[in-house]
Amino acid sequence: xxxxxxxxxxxxxxxxxxxxxxxxxxxxxxxxxxxxxxxxxxxxxxxxxxxxxxxxxxxxxxxxxxxxxxxxxxxxxxxxxxxxxxxxxxxxxxxxxxxxxxxxxxxxxxxxxxxxxxxxxxxxxxxxxxxxxxxxxxxxxxxxxxxxxxxxxxxxxxxxxxxxxxxxxxxxxxxxxxxxxxxxxxxxxxxxxxxxxxxxxxxxxxxxxxxxxxxxxxxxxxxxxxxxxxxxxxxxxxxxxxxxxxxxxxxxxxxxxxxxxxxxxxxxxxxxxxxxxxxxxxxxxxxxxxxxxxxxxxxxxxxxxxxxxxxxxxxxxxxxxxxxxxxxxxxxxxxxxxxxxxxxxxxxxxxxxxxxxxxxxxxxxxxxxx
Length: 370
What we know:
The protein is mostly beta strands.
């Protein structure tokens, strides 16, 4: 290490027992006392043997937090629970120690997954209790910049406690307690990312101790929504933004719904450039209702008790701009702003940090109203 200080690249490595770990028997008692809602036990194994095939035929190595249901998941599988659940995520490492940082959750240091303030592990069970419904993200916090790019990240969603707000009709859910309704079948989680294939050939410790390996030089070639890669997503002088590109129509991205049947879009910026999300065509923009940001609803009043009774939509927009790791929850096609039958494009532009006028890449999808 260059400065003789171990903080930069030598955080503690350990695989301790989880402090205060709750067994299923203890969880049953806590549930009967109303302390927790349910015990949710999940596992995430670090896998380094995956790959993604790009539209031009290039195979890019990816890493993932696998739950065993998919061979090469990208992004890593969603972590989903309900407010007041007690969540336990058992991480099994490989290729060196790792962590899981549940971004936006504020547990104790042992369960926060930041190696420099706790430890990195080969095996550890993270334990926490979510208290805010919304959209979050989890990721490895060892050599974070590189490991995130290699695929060690995934969405995290917490739903509102139905015991506190039981009025949602069958097939619907509220975004948060006292919040707006959406049809469950119309929910989409969009992890917006980009891949610089050069980075995926780096050693997993590249740049960890301060050496300059180029992690400040991000040149993505491929642009994705979830695990779908946009065809010709890279913007070049030979293939400018004005050229038509086919939308991503994968079922976990595109959505079809009747007019007035509310659609919830949980958008996660999982790339290193700012993104601009445009709803509808330039000549016919779509009205989107902003409901929450970074796992917190917008409010009409200040409430230090954490109640969402004063929550509201922040306003009506037809585009948003997001920074890395930022999340937005938006509703479209609501009863107050229904869409007429037709196909509505949604365009996501990735803009260069130093020159915001420069569009680096694009990904497109669509909403179909019947």
